[in-house]
Structure formats: structure tokens, C-alpha cells
Specification:
Elements lengths: L5 H4 L6 E2 L2 H4 L7 E2 L3 H8 L9 H5 L6 H9 L3 H11 L3 H7 L3 H4 L12 H14 L15 E5 L3 H12 L3 E6 L7 H4 L8 H13 L3 E4 L9 H7 L2 E4 L5 E2 L12 E3 H12 L16 E5 L3 H12 L4 E5 L26 H4 L3 E3 L2 E9 L2 E11 L12 E2 L5 E4 L2 E4 L3 E3 L5 H5 L22 E3 L2 H4 L4 H20 L8
Parallel strand pairs: 3-4, 3-6, 4-5, 6-18, 8-16, 9-10, 9-16, 10-11
Antiparallel strand pairs: 1-2, 7-17, 12-13, 13-14, 13-15
Length: 481
Amino acid sequence: MGDIRGFLKVKREPLQCRPVCERIKDYHEVMTMRPDVRSEEQASRCMDCGTPFCHWGCPVGNYIPEWNDLVFHGQWDKAFELLYATNNLPEITGRICPAPCEYACVLGINDDPVTIRENELAIIEHAYSTGVIKPHPPKKRTGKKVAVIGSGPAGLAAADQLNKAGHSATVFEKDKRIGGILRYGIPDFKLEKHIIDRRIGIIKKEGVRFVPGINVGVDYSVSKLKKEFDAICLAGGSRVPRNLKIEGRELAGIHFAMDYLTQANRRAVGEKIPDSKLIDANGRRVVVIGGGDTGADCVGTANRQGASCVVQIEVLPKPAECRTDDFPWPKHPLILKTSTSHEEGGERHWSILTKKFIGKNGRVNKIACVRIDSSKKDTRPCPITQEVPESEFDIDADLIVLAVGFIHPEHAGLLDRLGVEFDNKENVKTDSNYMTSVNRVFAAGDMHRGQSLVVWAISEGRRAAHFIDKYLMGQTNLPSM
């Protein structure tokens, strides 16, 4: 490393955010970029550690110490080359990745870890601003055609890699615009959509073909798909939401988180939603059930829509604020996370079980809850959830958002018509080469591994592309991660 004592001289300095009073009025990105000189200073904190566990923590295997050292020395172009060698979408992960690499940072054992995610973002944005990033179509074509179903992070990464190998990749997307969960599931204040469009523009110029508005298996037959393509990569994500099947679920005003976020994203770009289908938090008392990142996105969206109040509840206990013995370094710890959305207003409550929805005239107006205790363990030891006696209470609510996760990909349509097998979690089952039970058909991303992180979806897309190329050509030069 250029300065082996950098971590002793420079303290961690994360990206700054726009003031709450300003950002709550729009959907523009919350974070603000820092000057390059600040990123160079932060990169100097990367230690000359013997074993860089950040590699172990990163699903795409980023060359983190190497490009940190290059940034520190002002060699931004070389830093970009190393970053782009392992990550097809660094401008995405640099904004929304929860940075498992930072929790595995050696410096994090007894100090604040290196700002790896912010440094990654600085590298890719520097490359865009200086014109380093340009389309590089493959010099030779193999004559092989691959269909990629789904244009989320797994599909984009797979298509990009397959195109680099010289194959003709066609990406099908059932929505009107390309991007999948990146476009429709993540609010603009975390990821503005021109960032996605910028990357897709480059991939297009390199030769990847995009076909939006086509639901393969419904609008485009499976027989035609198999006939026209030499291989197929399923990257449709995990889109079936987990429901909360309790009394009163049929009442109006209760919506799945992804339905709410998708509509909000459509509205943000000017799409008109019929009044009969509008999900609007303006002037409403909003309760978000689910304490994860998706729930936090719903909190931020509700605040921007002018909710009169927002309450987020979670059935699990409140996590510790620091790493505990249950999650020793370098494991990714279960700790309390306060997002920018939480900073903007609202209440958060843990160990709350929703018992039933209560309504009037067919519309929800409150929920019945009870506090629970998960401190006792069984013999395994797993927590035993018990209701706390006489702890029942109600929360007034005009709009309820269910952000309790997803259970598996949609089976009806493409998957059923292809006849692929599913694993015990109802995800698409593959062998070690990412091939499904149907010859020439591969799977990657949440559709394959279940609901997970964007960075894992990118990793899965890259791995699937590696095995697809090997299947088509007998060998491959594409990396396996």
C-alpha cells in the first residue's frame, strides 16, 4: 500500500446526504458525491493486511485493496479497469449495496472500516465523468444466440458477460422498460433511473438486444424460444410476495410493498395511474409491516407522498447496535440499521406481532397488535416466540404496506411451460453448472437462489454466463465469478 499508516492518520468519512428538509420534497438522490481528493484520502485507510477478508465478504470478488491503492495514488483509470473486471454494475452497487465487504474489513476489527462502497462509487463516476467508459463491442461473434429472461441485475450481468464472449444476447423483459427490480422496486431517492439508462445505453451499443413489453411464455411461446436460441438464461427474480393471512386481510387499503413501490416509481416518471388503482399515502396514517430494506424504502416513499404519520413495525426483536458474539468478525452481522428514510421521520417498533386488521365500511382503519417475547430458547437453541400477557394494543392506519419478503419466483407461465424442476423452497433448481432440469436452460439470481442482494444477483448472472459459454463452446475464458 502507498501509505501503510494511512488508517492511523485518516478517520472514516462516509458520503454526506442532502438535508432532510430539502430531500423530503423530491425523489432525487439522497447522497452527494465527495471530491476526488477526499476519496483518495479515504482509500489511504486501506491496510496492507496479510489476508484481505473484504474479498471473502464480496460476492463478486472485487479487487478491493488493489483499486484502493490505485485511487490513493491518483491512478483512477487503472482503478476502474480492476473494478470493472469483476463487477458489471458498479454504479448500482456503489449506491445500494449493503457492503458486506466492509463488515469483513480487517480494519473493522478495532476501528471504523474502509469506505469501500463509497470508493467504488467514486471510481465508476470518475470513469464516466472523464470519458473512460466507452462501448467495446466484441471483435468476433460466435454465431450462438442466447435468450436472457429478465432485465434485473442478474439478467443484465449475464447478458453483458455473454456478449463479451461473442454470443448474441437478447434480453426479454415483461415490463415496458428495462431494469427489473432496479427500475421498479428501488425508489429514485436511492437510485435515480438515469443511472440505469446510462449503463443500458452502453450495453446496447456493445451489441446486446433488449425486448421490453414481452412476457415470455405468454406473449412469446416456449417452443419459439427453444427453436430460436441455443441457450436460455432464466433471470426473472423472486416476485411472489409473502402474504399476511390474518383476519381482515380482504379490507381495502392493504397492499404489498412491491406494488406500492412499483407504482410510486411509475408516478415519479410521470405515468398516470387511474384513481381506482392509486396507492397514495398523502394525508394518511401509514403502517409498514416489515423491518427490512424494502420496508425502509416504503417509509421514505410514504414520507415523500405526504403521509400524516408513518409507523414501521417488525416481528423480530430489535437488533444490537454493535457486533455481538453471535456474529463474530468477519461474518456479516445482524445489527441495527438506520437508513436515510428513517432519518426523515416516522416511528419504528420491534417485537410486534400483527393479530388482525380492523376496518370500517370495507376499508382498514387500524390494526390489532400484541408484543412478543423471543428471549427464551429451545434445545436447538432457537428462539421461542411468546405473546406478552396483557400487551395488546391497536395502531390507527389508513394505509398498510406489507414488506415481509418474497417466497419464490412466479411458476405460472414460463416456468411451468418450460417444465423446470423446483427445489424445496420452490426456487428453480439447477445443477452445479447452473443448468436446470431442462437441457440448454440455465437459471440465475433470485429465481435460482431466492430473495437476496443485488450484488449476489450480479454474481449469479456472471456465474451463469460462465457456464453457458462453456456449454456452448466447450470451454470458456469468462471468469466464474
